[in-house]
Amino acid sequence: MGAALRRRAGQVAAGNMLAAMRATMAYTVLRLAIFAVALGLLYLVGARGILLIGLAAVISAILSFVVLARWREAMAGSISQRITNARARLDEGTKVEDVD
After folding, report:
1. How many domains does the chain have?
2. Within a domain: residue 12?
3. Does residue 12 carry a pLDDT above 60?
4. C-alpha torsion sign, points 56, 59, 65, 67
5. How far is CA 50 from the centre of its chain?
6. In whole angstroms, what is the distance from residue 25 CA to residue 52 CA?
7. How far is the C-alpha of 8 from the C-alpha of 23, rounded, in Å?
8. Which among 36, 14, 13 has a CA at the least distance from the CA of 89?
9. Pairwise CA distance, residues 44 & 33, whole Å
10. Taking a C-beta distance cutoff of 8 angstroms, is the pair 89, 9 a contact?
11. Is residue 37 part of a domain?
């Protein structure tokens, strides 16, 4: 029975890991897309060099903070859930070792 529980816990952990990775990838891709759009628009306006990159970074950070709040919360929630599950598994393993 212990092996079946460990196998099930591994499947749940893999599912949580995929959810965390999916949320993180979506947020990262959207952040990069906003940066690329800001970079392109600033280039068309005439910004060049370090000014172009600096302004694009600042503008994309502000836009990302406002526009991507939902995705950021989803990413943070999935990562937090994964950490909570990992701690629970560690505590469970510790209790099993203490019983032996």
Report:
1. 1
2. yes
3. no
4. negative
5. 28
6. 25
7. 23
8. 13
9. 17
10. yes
11. yes
Q: Which amino acid is at 90?
A: L
Q: Is the pTM of this model over 0.90?
A: no
Task: Report pLDDT digits (tens) over 41-57.
Answer: 999 999 999 999 999 99
Q: Which long-range contacts (CB under 8 A, 24 or more apart) does 8-13 make?
A: 9/89, 9/92, 12/85, 13/82, 13/85, 13/86, 13/89
Q: Is 17 part of a structural domain of the chain?
A: yes
Q: Does 21 map to a domain?
A: yes
6 SS3 class: helix
Structural domain boundaries, residue 42: 2-91
DSSP secondary structure, 30-85, as one string: HHHHHHHHHHHHHHHHT--HHHHHHHHHHHHHHHHHHHTHHHHHHHHHHHHHHHHH
Concatenate the DSSP letters of all residues of 10-25 into one string: HHHHHHHHHHHHHHHH
